[in-house]
Specification:
alpha/beta
C-alpha cells in the first residue's frame, strides 16, 4: 500500500520523513506532496483549487490507498474554515474523490479553546468539519492518569468498538550528521473511555487548577512552610480543592514539598522565597 502525505505545518526533511522512519515506514511507498504545480508555478496545495491535481496524482499512482492532509485548516485556500457552507463545499468533493478512487483520506485538525462543551463541538472550524466525514477520532491525554488514547469521536459506518491507548516513544536517528531523538506512536491496550469524558475532565480540571493557584499563592504568601495536611484541609473548605489539584497548583507556583523530619509521614509546603513579594 502506498500513501500520500500533504503537510504544510512540518518540514519533510527534518520532521515528516524522520518520523516515518522511526515508525518503520517504507519510504519507497510514501509520496510527500510539498506543493501543487499550476500554470503559474508551484503553490501550497489548496482544496478550493487543487483537487484536479490530486485526482491526476491518484490516477498516475493507483497504488495509493491513503492520503493525509495535515492540518486541514492550512489547506483550505480561500475557503473560510468557520463557514459551514464553504467548508462543506470543499470537503464534499474531497469525499467523492476518495469514493471514486477507493482511498482513505485522513484530515487533521485541532481543538478550539472553548470550555464546558461536548468534545464534538470543540473541533476547530465549523461543525461541517466533523459532519462531512464518516469517521472522526480524538487523540487526547487523561490528565488524571497520564494515559494517552485514540478515541472514537464519531462513527457513522462502523460499530463503535472503542479506541487504543498509545505512548510517544523516541528512536535515535541520524539527521544531517547529528543524532536526534525522533518521536513515534506505539499503540497498546484497548481503551473504552469516551472523548467527552477526557475533554470535559481536561477543561474542568484546567479551570480548577487555575482557581487553586490563585488561592494557594495567597495562602502561602507569608513564605513560611506549612504542613501539607493543613493546606489541603483549608483548600477543601475554601474551594473544594482536592490534594491532586493543590499539588498541581504548588508545582505551577514553583513551590516545594519537603518531608517532615522525625515523622513517618507528612510534608511541608512552601513557596520559594524569591517568589514572595
Amino acid at each position: 500500500m502506498e500513501i500520500a502525505v500533504i503537510s504544510s505545518e512540518d518540514a519533510s526533511g527534518d520532521t515528516v520523513v524522520p518520523r516515518l522512519i522511526a515508525a518503520g515506514a517504507d519510504l519507497d511507498k510514501v509520496h510527500i506532496v510539498d506543493c501543487a504545480k499550476t500554470p503559474d508555478g508551484e503553490k501550497e496545495f489548496s482544496l478550493d483549487t487543487d483537487l484536479p491535481a490530486l485526482r491526476v496524482m491518484l490516477e498516475e499512482n493507483p497504488g495509493i490507498r491513503l492520503v493525509t492532509i495535515d492540518p486541514i485548516m492550512n489547506h483550505l485556500g480561500k475557503v473560510k474554515g468557520n463557514s459551514e457552507q464553504e467548508l462543506r463545499s470543499a470537503l464534499t468533493p474531497l469525499g467523492k474523490l476518495a469514493e471514486h478512487f477507493h482511498v482513505a483520506i485522513v484530515i487533521v485538525t485541532h481543538f478550539n479553546k472553548t470550555l464546558g462543551t461536548e468534545a464534538i463541538q470543540r473541533v476547530g472550524g465549523a461543525m461541517g468539519m466533523v459532519g462531512a466525514v464518516r469517521l472522526a477520532w480524538t487523540f487526547a491525554e487523561d490528565k488524571d492518569t497520564g494515559t494517552r488514547s485514540m478515541i472514537p469521536l464519531k462513527a457513522n459506518v462502523v460499530k463503535d468498538i472503542g479506541g487504543l491507548e498509545y505512548t510517544i516513544e523516541n528512536k535515535d536517528l541520524e539527521i544531517e550528521g547529528k543524532t536526534a531523538p525522533t518521536g513515534y506512536l506505539k499503540f497498546g491496550d484497548k481503551s473504552h473511555i469516551t472523548a467527552d469524558s477526557v475533554m470535559k475532565g481536561k477543561s474542568e480540571k484546567s479551570s480548577k487548577i487555575s482557581e487553586a493557584v490563585i488561592w494557594l499563592e495567597t495562602y502561602l504568601s507569608d513564605g513560611e512552610p506549612h504542613p501539607a495536611k493543613d493546606v489541603i484541609n483549608a483548600g477543601a473548605v475554601a474551594g473544594q480543592f482536592d490534594s491532586k489539584i493543590l499539588g498541581n497548583a504548588l508545582k505551577k507556583l514553583g513551590g516545594v514539598s519537603t518531608p517532615i523530619k522525625g515523622m513517618s509521614a507528612g510534608n511541608m509546603w512552601q513557596l520559594p522565597k524569591k517568589d514572595i513579594q
